[in-house]
Design a protein that fits this description.
The protein is an alpha/beta fold. The protein is built from three helices and nine strands.
Amino acid sequence: EELAKGVVLHDGEGYIMAVIPATHHIQLGKLRKKYQRYLSLADEKDLHELFADCSVGAVPPIGKAYNIDVIFDDHLNECQDVYFEAGDHTDLVHVTGKDFRTLMGNVSHGEFSRHM
């Protein structure tokens, strides 16, 4: 529940990173309805180009550092601590829940994932 993962989505307008707990599945239907955009999962080629300094499957959930818009799931709003991969499969970043929310900044959030 406290391990955040970034799921990169795209449509005709560009990319957006949805940050959700690693124990959850993203609900694309809710996102499409909320943002009135037909978002779908970005493919590995896109991820490699966007995150050339990261290992495959280890994208950190800080899209702003890569000039990608971010939204995050409200489930992460309730966490005392948040962890996320640092761009590889070796290093893990730990921040307090408060620091995570600060790191996310003034981005949109909502409930768009469900527990697996």
